[in-house]
Amino acid sequence: MKVLILGSGGREHALALAVKRNPEVETLYVAPGNPGIGEIATLAPLDIADHAAVAAFARTQGIDFVIVGPEAPLVAGIVDDLARVGVKAFGPSRAAAQLEGSKGYTKQLCAEANIPTARWGRFRMYEAALAYVRANGAPIVVKADGLAAGKGVIVAETLAEAEAALKRVFDGEFGAAGSSVVIEEKLVGEEASFFALCDGERAVALGSAQDHKRAYDGDQGPNTGGMGAYSPAPVMTPEMEARVMDEIVRPALVGMAARGAPFVGVLFAGLMIGPEGPKLIEFNTRFGDPETQVLLPRIEDDLLELLIAAAEGRLSEEPVKLSPETALTVVMAAKGYPEAPEKGSGIHGLDKAGALAGVVVTHAGTAKKGGRLVASGGRVLNVTAVGTSAAEAQKRAYEAVKQIEAPGLFYRRDIGWRAIARG
Ligand code: AMP
Ligand code: GLY
Fold it and tell me: Which residues sit with their C-beta closer than 6 Å to ligand 2?
């Protein structure tokens, strides 16, 4: 079988490692990939925003199955565009990817399907938005409606902050994503991410994870794509997972089918677990990054088989076998991330780090320059370790981080603190 993965981050490196475990895979292509992925797969230098180029490549190479990593091509309809030329792909259609592409769309679905979520309003006009904020008071959450790479959310603790946030959205700081604004009640509780594999009708749990969104230790500093994660998230007990499947995932599948946009792919629920139970913060319609780096090492069933079954609408509702171990990943990012990451600094010692027991190093923003490995983007490396507890996985991951000589990178030193504090 020939498989093509689209994307170039740590998520896609982790996907590539998992897909390679299937003995039926004769060739694995990753487009555009990165130097780390290039060690285990064939890189295809494609612009994945160019759907015609991806479709032509898939046709000429005889690709049997495409796995789409990031959200942008999904929201732009790459799965539909590939289907049109007879290429099977894993991920939601353009219509179903609206669950991630538009916060207002998801909020509407929550209302129709009775999915627990924060109270909200959506506004196209500044004056109406301002009136809503003033009527509801702070704390309150202001969000650009469209895709804003995780940066379009402002949790305002005071009315002044909320009003400033509205100005930023309506002044065009988030571009087209901010042509309308969603304003929400601030939820309280503990955040967790939950992943379900869906075939349009059925869903199975792939596990839970906890991300660390802030750049610096102690959850300080600006929001990022994610500075580290672990799986499972202790707050997601078996009982809580069952509630999330029944109260959030399955109603969403029924609602999407009723809208004529059955959801096929990974439904990634960002949750707040509070006193009344789980509430939905947002859906993503893909694997998370860095959550995938900690989910996949725990999946004991064949990932590729599961993804193909989902794409073909024949998912079994047998629970996916998950290892009881904890996986934890530390993101090493270029100094200056997220605002202005420095490029070009050297990276050494990955072999030493990867040789430690239970450790895997995946690449994100790396490049080869004159035979040297250098940083080329915001998040550069993920150092992932598996252990019998969060504390053990954390210890192993940081031991591996210490083996890496990369003076141009920084990382958080407290990934996993919440799980470890629970004991
Ligand atoms: P989102 O991009 O919607 O996931 O939001 C980014 C982050 O903002 C979330 O991970 C939460 O930490 C926070 N957030 C978003 N919406 C809410 C809410 N209604 N209440 C509390 N925190 C929120
Ligand atoms: N780590 C958050 C995300 O992938 O959206």
Answer: 211, 225-226, 284, 288-289, 291
